[in-house]
Amino acid sequence: MSGIDALKFAELDTERKKRTGFPEVVFCQGKKDDFLKDIFAKLYAANGEVLGTRATAEQFEIVKSVIANAEYDEVSRIITARENEKKLVGNIAVCTAGTADIPVAEEAARTAEFFGSFVSRIYDVGVSGIHRLLSKTEILNKANCIIAIAGMEGALASVIGGLVSVPVIAVPTSVGYGASFEGLSALLTMINSCANGISVVNIDNGFGAGYVATQINFLAERGKTK
Amino acid sequence: MSGIDALKFAELDTERKKRTGFPEVVFCQGKKDDFLKDIFAKLYAANGEVLGTRATAEQFEIVKSVIANAEYDEVSRIITARENEKKLVGNIAVCTAGTADIPVAEEAARTAEFFGSFVSRIYDVGVSGIHRLLSKTEILNKANCIIAIAGMEGALASVIGGLVSVPVIAVPTSVGYGASFEGLSALLTMINSCANGISVVNIDNGFGAGYVATQINFLAERGKTK
Amino acid sequence: MSGIDALKFAELDTERKKRTGFPEVVFCQGKKDDFLKDIFAKLYAANGEVLGTRATAEQFEIVKSVIANAEYDEVSRIITARENEKKLVGNIAVCTAGTADIPVAEEAARTAEFFGSFVSRIYDVGVSGIHRLLSKTEILNKANCIIAIAGMEGALASVIGGLVSVPVIAVPTSVGYGASFEGLSALLTMINSCANGISVVNIDNGFGAGYVATQINFLAERGKTK
Amino acid sequence: MSGIDALKFAELDTERKKRTGFPEVVFCQGKKDDFLKDIFAKLYAANGEVLGTRATAEQFEIVKSVIANAEYDEVSRIITARENEKKLVGNIAVCTAGTADIPVAEEAARTAEFFGSFVSRIYDVGVSGIHRLLSKTEILNKANCIIAIAGMEGALASVIGGLVSVPVIAVPTSVGYGASFEGLSALLTMINSCANGISVVNIDNGFGAGYVATQINFLAERGKTK
Amino acid sequence: MSGIDALKFAELDTERKKRTGFPEVVFCQGKKDDFLKDIFAKLYAANGEVLGTRATAEQFEIVKSVIANAEYDEVSRIITARENEKKLVGNIAVCTAGTADIPVAEEAARTAEFFGSFVSRIYDVGVSGIHRLLSKTEILNKANCIIAIAGMEGALASVIGGLVSVPVIAVPTSVGYGASFEGLSALLTMINSCANGISVVNIDNGFGAGYVATQINFLAERGKTK
Amino acid sequence: MSGIDALKFAELDTERKKRTGFPEVVFCQGKKDDFLKDIFAKLYAANGEVLGTRATAEQFEIVKSVIANAEYDEVSRIITARENEKKLVGNIAVCTAGTADIPVAEEAARTAEFFGSFVSRIYDVGVSGIHRLLSKTEILNKANCIIAIAGMEGALASVIGGLVSVPVIAVPTSVGYGASFEGLSALLTMINSCANGISVVNIDNGFGAGYVATQINFLAERGKTK
Amino acid sequence: MSGIDALKFAELDTERKKRTGFPEVVFCQGKKDDFLKDIFAKLYAANGEVLGTRATAEQFEIVKSVIANAEYDEVSRIITARENEKKLVGNIAVCTAGTADIPVAEEAARTAEFFGSFVSRIYDVGVSGIHRLLSKTEILNKANCIIAIAGMEGALASVIGGLVSVPVIAVPTSVGYGASFEGLSALLTMINSCANGISVVNIDNGFGAGYVATQINFLAERGKTK
Amino acid sequence: MSGIDALKFAELDTERKKRTGFPEVVFCQGKKDDFLKDIFAKLYAANGEVLGTRATAEQFEIVKSVIANAEYDEVSRIITARENEKKLVGNIAVCTAGTADIPVAEEAARTAEFFGSFVSRIYDVGVSGIHRLLSKTEILNKANCIIAIAGMEGALASVIGGLVSVPVIAVPTSVGYGASFEGLSALLTMINSCANGISVVNIDNGFGAGYVATQINFLAERGKTK
User: Fold this and answer.
1) Cα→Cα distances E39→D68, E62, E182, F85, Å
2) Residue H134 CB partners (closer than 8 Å, separation 6+)
3) Do residues A128 and B195 lie in contact, with contact meaning Cβ atoms separated by under 8 Å?
């Protein structure tokens, strides 16, 4: 980025952790290299941990040059770095309809784990083979919150919603073709769910689902502590 | 209708039964009274039976004035008249997600019955209480063809598609509110179904589903005979 | 409803309370009178309490004829009946952008109260006069969950999301005109929120928000108990 | 795919053939190489035959390395492998409006042939030169089911629907430009068809059409046997 | 209309006939009574003839009070008044897919006749019974211009476009339901027509089609004379 | 409004005039009678003047019962009340494409006049008779700001934008039918204008345009004074 | 294209010239090389002239290898070949709003010239500088038909429609960005034009406009001769 | 550009500066090299200054070859050249929600500066951390006009609108993913803003905002001078 120093305009929200209980997270997509290096360094220094989403392998190399113990997961495209281990508490179930939804699921799961939630993965249990999902009912019922991830017709959330007593965070994905319109079909399905207890985040927004699910998981484990 | 005689422009398709195996059907909605009276009389005279869809109670009274044994069903808004009883053959299962979808289901069921198909009704088995549907698996598996009718998120067709070996005709309904956009959400869900064996007709088009299902039911019972 | 007995097709989900922790609720809109009478009577007999949403004053009279102590709220269009008082626990903050959003807010608030949640109402605090919302920060921070309700541009959820540490359930409303497209604009705004911790329910779906918020409120107060 | 083993999450639906009469099929698009190799090998071992759709030439090379007798068709982008020859029964007519629709048509035709249906190809008979289609009426009338494939304005299905007595499966294609909106125009045309006997699958979903048509073709040839 | 005199703001385009060859026409829908009375009177005085479209029977009574020889057609909702007979020249064929499209067709036909074109009406020749249209080929081929009017899937224009050598003006209608989206489906079909020689006017715009067709008809009969 | 006192939730923004230079305005549409009475009374008491938009004649009677000198304009549906006369300064030109756009134009004009701007009305100068607009060029060039109001294809703003040196506020209206989609077409036209100096407000938002235009008019007359 | 011989399925419409007065034209986009070579050769042999649209420079080289005197225009992406010179008759005015619309305009102009029409080019006369268009009024008034080409807000057609007495064929282009939605904005503008005499073809469909304009131009020059 | 000389069709609007007070600006995107060179040279010669938007670095090299003192800014992609320094007057505040919106903001800011406005940059003050924006209230209140730039949910404009007394020009950006639909979500948010004083330009149209803001800024500083 030449001609203007974008960094000087970035208003780092250092009060965020105090206000919301969560540190600021870096959405890496489209960020310039210099900016990325700086912001990761600053956040890591401030919080002793940092999370970046939608990162390319190239961006990870840049981050690694300033944070030696940074790690990268290719599937979820998440960068994490942490000074000290964190104990995982509670239980969030992350479910997908198909294997193509796994990248979004891993973004959700690893986000939740980064923030300190324990995660159960239940993948490839779409409604066209309903027995696969039903065989997991017991595992589902152990969770404090469930993330239901599906593209195409996005029916997974409704079926899960009818099986459990806890909130279901639905994530439409852009998996599909033709009239899936890049996830719009799944988004509409989920927003119109006839099941109760379902709320929806943006298309492919695994991070957002992991964040909300962790808020709920922490409330269930610790109650409202702030 | 004054100033122009619409009836003289109606091109009655008297060859249709020979060409397609099915007599012409009257879509009553918006039809003028005189036109309705005439067209019902002509089709009944030609075929000894007649089917009208989307009819109001007022329109039924008009039809009854020319065809004494005409019958009307308030739920499906269907008018039928028939000289001789017809034996019902085969088996079509008509399923709905909720009770609000029943008018569309009855349009489908009664259309299929009018043409000579036996119909099994399986209503209010939406996916948010999946056990209700699963308890009907045996009945579903006796059908030659299944009609799956649902509004809101429209996920019923996908779940049924995964349970059976016969074609599923999916009918989105305009049941719902907000982002259901008058049935668009259910239509997209069904068109994007991850299950195989599903094809879709227009929103609220119970008649169309009953027609296709009968074509399939007859093929299964009689083979291709034409 | 003549010609077919819709009631015999209604598959009452008597196991729902056991499975999900919540009794079945009646969506009154478009329901026939006889059906309404029966289903309210059956659910009240089974659970000792019953909730109906989107009811007209006429429908309330019908329900009252079978459940003498039923009550109706004109703003939220909610019917409730209950044998014994219920203690309200926890804290859910229900916020609206304008006064026109209050009917949806009351549907959310009264749903949450019916299920047993304590509710704080914070109305008419839209973002175009941001000081109104900021003056309520302390109250907001006492809640286990926040419901943010807004039509038109729907920006309320994002601002609240940045102020608190608990989940925000966003409800777009159909309040507005022109390019609000019956709530689509607010829905898109909320789904695209740049703030974390926000998930979204259908347009005008106050009931859905009250349900999810209660699930979260109970988890925060009681932990996962099932 | 690093960091997570997607394969271990794939829930192979080994009961599918028993439940639906058809083996599981591989949608190759976007599948990782290792996963592709494994899933093809497993399905071929289990069923003695395997079908893959939306495959690239590169993916075929990978499949060939584990299944020596696998074959690839560039037009339809279909991979097939089979231990024993299969006798083709019945008759499905696959029709296209233009030559640009042929890839989708071949996906439909080869899917139907893989499952055991005999296929008649009738290509480039779009409605702007209606005599081309009319000259094929005799061939159309020999089929148990017809697949009508068209992009742009998608009118082919309606015209065919008026000529025959068997079900027409309509496939909108993304062929076109401008206001065809990647197939949306053809999809809407087909869903709104004024002809009877038409049901619709997703844009470019040749596989889905071939699957449904085979279900119907088998019912016509064998009746309901399950 | 109180508080402001709308009439004083209406900029009557008295030069229009000189500039475009056609007098100004009154779109009656939503016009206030006083304004209607005035504008009809002024235009009739100026041109010795006047045409009003989208008029109600009530509006006609108002016009009749100032122009005694005004006539009204209920089907097309057109008001006309004329001092002297006009000889009709050339030939425009106005075709509809169904009988429900006739009101739009009559708006087109009577507009063309008002301006001086001879019109051939060919109604109810939709593509689902293609023989009906084909039997009119000879009549179609006598026209200087063809107007093709259809709702639902709107395929009529494409088939006609392939049969004739003259321009086809396509008019989508709002006839249909569900995914016809008030004529959007037919509009997209017609804009994407694979046939040549087709151009499209607004949904239900019979007047617009009659106007363009007359321009073409006059060019064919008289050549460019201005 | 029973069951809840909406008034107690209305957060009157008494600081607004100090903050923004303009008093709070009442959007009357859908407001309950009691609420209307109270809010008009309070705002009139506080500011010595009050403006209400989108009011019915019935609502005006209610307002009049508490503010004796309130006035109502049927065309714009605006209620105004004022203790002392206000001198009108500067010059805003309000232009419409057709006479059907006048109600929106009057909402804009009367809003601007209420706040203290002088307004020039230039109505029915749509682009299909371009000479009408060109003949007003001199008047246009005297304005500090221009409001361009049009439905249907909404081209007026672009043409005006090319003729003047001052900002043009474009207001799409819902005037039109068919593919005008309730003003969406005009909105898109104006947002995509190839002319410079154009910015757009919501469909039919005459009030919004009058407000912005007044802000600009005051800046031009008084400079930035706050 | 391997595995299937697409060519054998192409149904060359050799009767088209007799039926419609125009020879078949090749839409080159996406056509395979072998197919292109064959179809150009066959059509040239049959008609002594051939027109190809949407061709790449590479495709031209292929065509040139079989038709030595083929010519290519880079701007319009049109290939033409012709045995004998053709006299150009009549007059079609092709107008564009901006210079970016010229490729579509040249497709229209060269199509019209290929078929035998004389063309006047009037480019870069968009409505934001209305004097540019007005200065061409005399040239416009010499044409038998006008093609108005514009992207972005597409207002050009309406202004021209108000200036002339002959039909205006409007072509929306995909020129623009943001809310132009690839030409949808211009399409809606043109379909909703308040001017009379305007009909619309698909986005970027210069060929279609050139074809219709030629039909009209020939009618004006020769009358209806078939 | 071969075959046709686009340059000869470009109608340079040499009167524009006189008519609108601003010289013609070059939208570089998609312009051919030769055309670019010529048009920059001509405009620079005529006006002694020239502004180009949406330019690539390659295009800048071409411009530099004819205007030696041309300058390029990579962030805004703006080319400027000027013979004499210009004094910047007044005050426009350019605000962004995030750092990803800065390229659009710089296009707006540099456009305003080129025309002679003084600009205050206030970046990364999105509503999810509302204190960041509130801390700038004093700076905001010094401006004659504010440009509010945001993608995703686009709520920034509404909050600013409630804080200030001057016009806010809102610019939606295509920043976001999923249901942001390339900026449509932010556009709808801004058009539906509940705050007063907001008008909207096209998605990513920084130039347009800078232009309007300068018109307003000059009116505030100089009054209406023309």
Assistant:
1) 83, 12, 31, 37
2) C130, C134, H163
3) yes
Measured on CA atoms in the order E215, E218, E224, E226, is the torsion positive or negative? negative
Q: Which amino acid, residue F150?
A: A
A20, closest residue in chain C (CA to CA): C165
Q: Collapsing DSSP states into helix, strand and coil, what is residue A5? A: coil
* Distance in angstroms (rounded) separating the CA atoms of residues F92 and B124: 61
**Calpha distance G196→B151 (Å, rounded):** 42
* pLDDT score of B3 more than 50: no
DSSP secondary structure letters along F6-32: HHHH----TTHHHHHSS---EE-TT--
Tokens of A153: 């017709």
CA distance H136 to chain C (A): 14
- What one-character DSSP code corresponds to residue D178? G
3-state secondary structure of E121: strand
Mutate which of A99, A110, A134 to disrupt the D interface (most D C-beta within 10 Å)? A99
Helix (H) or strand (E) holding C162: none
> Which residues fall within 8 angstroms of residue C207, CB to CB, at 6 or more apart?
C25, C27, C53, C107, C108, C111
Cβ of G180 and F195 within 8 Å?
no
What secondary structure, in 3-state letters, does H184-216 show? HHHHHHHHCCCCCCEEECCCCCHHHHHHHHHHH
Of the candidates G126, E41, C18, the one whose C-alpha atom is nearest the C-alpha of residue F192 is G126
Question: F39-98, pLDDT tens digit by residue?
Answer: 999 999 999 999 999 999 999 999 999 999 999 999 999 999 999 889 999 999 999 999
Cβ atoms of H193 and A189 within 8 Å: the answer is no
Coil, strand or helix: which one is D197? Answer: coil
Domain boundary assignment for chain E: 4-82, 89-224
Task: Confirm if C135 and C188 have CB atoms less than 8 A apart.
Answer: no
ipTM: 0.93
Residue E214's SS3 state is helix
Listing from the earlier edge strand, what are the strands of the sheet with C49-53?
Answer: C26-27, C49-53, C78-82, C71-73
Name the helix (H) or strand (E) containing B147: strand B145-150
On whether the CB atoms of residues B195 and B157 are closer than 8 A, the answer is: yes
Q: Measured between alpha carbons, how far is residue G31 from residues D98, D196, E195, H149 in Å?
A: 11, 34, 18, 44
Residue B76 DSSP class: T
**What's the topology of domain C89-224?**
Rossmann fold (3.40.50)
Residue A191 touches chain C, beta carbons under 8 Å: yes
D20 and B CB contact within 8 Å: yes
Measure the CA–CA gap between F66 and F86, rounded to whole angstroms. 22
The edge-to-edge listing of strands for the beta sheet with E78-82 is: E26-27, E49-53, E78-82, E71-73
G chain contacts of residue F164, beta-carbon cutoff 8 Å: none
User: pLDDT (tens digit, 9 = 90+) per residue, E2-32?
Assistant: 344 555 666 666 667 777 788 889 999 988 8
Give phi and psi for D38, each to the nearest 5.
-65, -50
Angle F57-66/F33-47 helices, nearest 10 degrees?
Answer: 50
Query: Per residue in E25-80, pLDDT tens?
Result: 999 998 889 889 999 999 999 999 999 999 999 999 999 999 999 999 999 999 99
What tokens does C211 get?
Answer: 């349900």
Contact D204 A99 (CB under 8 A): no
**DSSP β-ladder status, D49-53 and D26-27:** parallel
Element housing B13 (H / E):
none
In whole angstroms, what is the distance from residue B102 CA to residue B95 CA? 9
Q: Other C-beta atoms within 10 Å of G45: how many?
A: 11
Pairing of strands E26-27, E71-73: unpaired
